[in-house]
Every structure is written in C-alpha cells, then in structure tokens.
Amino acid sequence: MIDLPVIQPEMAAPARPRKPDWLRVKLPVGEEYAAVRRLVDEHKLHTICESGNCPNMGECWGAGTATFMILGNICTRSCSFCAVATGRPTEYDLDEPRRVAEAIKLMKVKHAVITSVNRDELKDRGASVWRETVVLTKQLSPDTTIETLIPDVKANWDALDVMISGGQEVISHNVETVGSLYRLVRPQARYDRSLEQIRRTKLAGHRTKSGIMLGLGEKADELYQAMDDLVANGLDILTLGQYLQPTKRHLDVAEFITPDQFAHYKEEGLKRGLKYVESGPLVRSSYHAERHVNVPV
C-alpha cells in the first residue's frame, strides 16, 4: 500500500465562491439576435456587448438594440476587472462615425448607447470622433435618443467639452467602484478625477449617469459614501450590478450580492438624493438605458 501525503487545510487552495442561481442567463438565440449580429459584422462594428462579455447580450440584442463601441477594441488602460483587450491601439478610423450612424438607422434603434475604449495616446482622447458619431446619428435618425458612456479624459477638460456637445440625451461616466479600491480595480484612474468629470458634465447642463460594480470587496458604508460623493457632484442616475470575473487573469469575485441587498441599495441611493437607481445582479451600464432619458435634468 502506498501512503499518500495528507494535505493540510492551510495547503489547500481557497475555494472560489459558487455562482448563485440568480446569475444564470440564457444563451443568446433568435431571429432578432441573429439580425443584429449580421449588421454588426457587415459594418465591421465593435460592441461592448461582445468585448465586455455582457450577460444581457441575448436580451438586448433580441430586442434589436446594442451598445456600440467606437475608436477600436484595444484599450490603453489595464483595469483589472475588464475583458477588453489592452495594448497600443492600431485603429483610428475617421469614417467610423458614418458607419455607426448608418447601422443604427438600419437597425431602427429607438435608443442607442455609444461607448469607447480609452485612447490616452490621442491628444483629444478621440473627442472629435465621439462628437461626429453623435451628430451623424442624430442627422440620420432624428427620433433616436442617445446615451454616451464616455471614458476618463485624464482631466483634458477641452476634450470633455467636445465629447458632450453632440446633442446626446444622457452622458454617462462610470466610477466603477468605491474610492478605497481604485488602486486595485482602476490603477490608471483616479476617483476624484472621475467625480470631477461628472461634476463638469452636470454644470454644462446635461443628464448625468454612472455605474458601480459590487462584489469586489467594498463595504456598505463605502458604497453609501460613494453615493453621497456622486450626488454632491451632480449625478442623476446610478446603475449597480454584480461584478463577474471575465477570465482567471482578472480580479476574483469577493462576494455575490443577493437580489435583496441590491433592492436595499436602490432604496438607499434614492434616499440619498439620486433621481434614478437601476440595481440588480445582472444590471450593466446600458441595461434599460432607454428609461433613463426621461429622468429630469
């Protein structure tokens, strides 16, 4: 008989938390989903739905909607939660605004969400492409409402002014997490700078929106402080969703937040002065985004 080594408890790898049933989603299927995929492929468009492994892709695409990602699909940042590729971008397509606008018209989208990777190497952070995409979409689809989910401009406030001047109804910038976790989650960003970006957007007269992922190790009182900070800087709309680890190279999930906890956080956000809170395990930035255009400025 061979004696096998006994593995002591301290030698065993820590168990990963099991994904709860409320986070299970159906695979994307159906004619509407297939039609959207064909248009995205034909027009050589990038969507954050695919690049970000969004759990709602089937639901949103099945309804004939999508979140478009402009300025390529390689990001200059290396956030530890994000599945978008990091590196030196090779794309800078000045014809992209036309292609995105035409695709939105072909898809007959009533509400479009447009986002982008970070382009820190560009002097204007891609602001001119941002503005042109919104302007052309409005020209081709005047009845379509638009939300732009813009990146951190690294305090290039001239670039911000251009990005938010196209005529979009909602301007979003995600803080992503609480201030204490920024070095871990967003090492190339700053919490106070993101708050300043939201404040300047509000002062320019726009409807403001942001998003926070939960389950990264934040404490409840830290989340409440973030809510207070956002309200103090003019935020109107907040989305709260569960962080899901995209690959083994990314941050582990520290905790799965229950649906009841999400409901409680929604009530807390409204009590603290937010005008609208979208809160749930599968909520992402663009989830139910069409509802947010009616929030008072």
Automatic annotation (TrEMBL):
SMART domains registered for this protein in UniProt: Elp3
Enzyme class: transferase
Catalytic activity: [[Fe-S] cluster scaffold protein carrying a second [4Fe-4S](2+) cluster] + N(6)-octanoyl-L-lysyl-[protein] + 2 oxidized [2Fe-2S]-[ferredoxin] + 2 S-adenosyl-L-methionine + 4 H(+) = [[Fe-S] cluster scaffold protein] + N(6)-[(R)-dihydrolipoyl]-L-lysyl-[protein] + 4 Fe(3+) + 2 hydrogen sulfide + 2 5'-deoxyadenosine + 2 L-methionine + 2 reduced [2Fe-2S]-[ferredoxin]
Pathway as given in its UniProt record: Protein modification; protein lipoylation via endogenous pathway; protein N(6)-(lipoyl)lysine from octanoyl-[acyl-carrier-protein]: step 2/2
Annotated localization: Cytoplasm
Main location, first listed in the record: cytoplasm
Cofactor annotation: [4Fe-4S] cluster
Pfam hit, one: LIAS_N
Gene3D superfamilies listed in its UniProt record: Aldolase class I
UniProt-listed Enzyme Commission number(s): 2.8.1.8
InterPro entries per the UniProt record, alphabetical: Aldolase_TIM, Elp3/MiaA/NifB-like_rSAM, LIAS_N, Lipoyl_synth, rSAM, rSAM_sf
Keywords of the record: 4Fe-4S, Cytoplasm, Iron, Iron-sulfur, Metal-binding, S-adenosyl-L-methionine, Transferase
Residues noted as binding [4Fe-4S] cluster 2 in the record, renumbered to the chain: 75, 79, 82
Binding site for [4Fe-4S] cluster 1: 49, 54, 60, 286
Gene Ontology MF term list: lipoate synthase activity
Record-annotated Radical SAM core domain positions: 61-275
Cofactor note: Binds 2 [4Fe-4S] clusters per subunit. One cluster is coordinated with 3 cysteines and an exchangeable S-adenosyl-L-methionine.
Family: Belongs to the radical SAM superfamily. Lipoyl synthase family.
PANTHER family linked: LIPOYL SYNTHASE, LIPOYL SYNTHASE, MITOCHONDRIAL
Protein name: Lipoyl synthase
Lineage: Bacteria, Pseudomonadati, Bacteroidota, Cytophagia, Cytophagales
